[in-house]
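Figure 3 (text version): structure tokens given as input.
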């Protein structure tokens, strides 16, 4: 009887010791994700969907909290916060990452890619590695790249239909050198201006035009002050990144899940953002706006390419002939 009691006590003691050193139940891991756009936007919806799918796939091991509308960080500040590890993730435009990769500028080469499909093929294929590698070195893990959608140049009084129409225009841009050089080469001057200041600047005549995404043009109701719209075949991407040190510390299976969900949602976004273009065109026309789409005219496309050749040559010197010509010859 005494032996049984001693044996039972030994087993209980051993069990208690093992329990003391056993890891505690895993706490839920919070992912903070600041974005500039509202939750009702396509990008807000994509970010929320990522959180739902990740929670479901990992049995609620992760909780994504999206901070929309720039309430925490946005743009370059969001990118910096991810790099520093102050937040875990963001998906902001390539213009927010110019401090970490000059190669991101290649994406916005005016009249560069043949069409949106060629651009999306670039984003999801191996040629985007020249951007991905830069970001990895800077402390980011790239979950996915996805298409910002149609870009436009809207002006107060002149509908841009040929290169000469740019002469004398003062165009707001986000500052990308390839865009700035291209517009200047066609006779315009450029100004770097925050998006939330564009409407009043157009209204006051400080600028005469704006280069931005079709989404931003509609969301900010710029058609009220710049009704002449050119849909320009120039493309931009959202960089969906996580802090690399944080990402690498997660279990391999979870990392694979995050990459897979992000890739799926990014490809869906590519389709969704272009699907709303017809609605944007209707909104613009309803407001009395006029629209040109030179990418649909072989003659116009050729004329713009010819006018932009000095810009292309300058970009070849900076980024390499092979990289630039691969874009210009995209099918």
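Below: residues designed for each position.
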């Amino acid at each position: 009887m005494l032996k049984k009691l001693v044996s039972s006590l030994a087993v209980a003691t051993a069990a208690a010791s093992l329990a003391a050193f056993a890891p505690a139940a895993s706490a839920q891991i919070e992912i903070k994700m600041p974005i500039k756009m509202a939750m009702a936007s396509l990008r807000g919806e994509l970010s929320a969907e990522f959180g739902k799918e990740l929670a479901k796939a990992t049995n609620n091991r992760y909780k994504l909290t999206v901070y929309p509308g720039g309430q925490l960080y946005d743009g370059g500040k969001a990118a910096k916060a991810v790099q520093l590890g102050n937040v875990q993730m963001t998906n902001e435009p390539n213009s927010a990452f110019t401090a970490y990769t000059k190669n991101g500028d290649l994406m916005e080469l005016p009249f560069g890619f043949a069409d949106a499909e060629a651009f999306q093929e670039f984003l999801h294929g191996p040629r985007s590695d020249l951007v991905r590698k830069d970001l990895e070195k800077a402390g980011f893990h790239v979950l996915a790249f996805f298409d910002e959608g149609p870009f436009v140049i809207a002006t107060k009084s002149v509908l841009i239909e040929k290169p000469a129409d740019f002469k004398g225009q003062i165009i707001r841009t986000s500052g990308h050198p390839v865009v700035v050089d291209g517009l200047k080469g066609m006779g315009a001057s450029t100004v770097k201006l925050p998006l939330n200041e564009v409407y009043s600047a157009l209204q006051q005549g400080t600028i005469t035009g704006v280069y931005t995404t079709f989404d931003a043009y509609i969301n900010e109701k710029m058609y009220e002050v710049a009704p002449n719209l050119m849909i320009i075949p120039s493309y931009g991407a959202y960089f969906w990144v996580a802090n690399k040190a944080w990402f690498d510390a997660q279990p391999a299976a979870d990392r694979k899940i995050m990459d897979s969900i992000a890739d799926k949602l990014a490809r869906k976004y590519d389709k969704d953002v272009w699907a709303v273009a017809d609605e944007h065109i209707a909104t613009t026309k309803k407001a009395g706006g006029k629209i040109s789409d030179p990418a649909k005219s072989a003659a116009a496309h050729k004329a713009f390419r010819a006018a932009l050749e000095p810009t292309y040559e300058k970009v070849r010197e900076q980024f390499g002939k092979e990289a630039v010509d691969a874009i210009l010859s995209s099918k």
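The radius of gyration is 25 Å.
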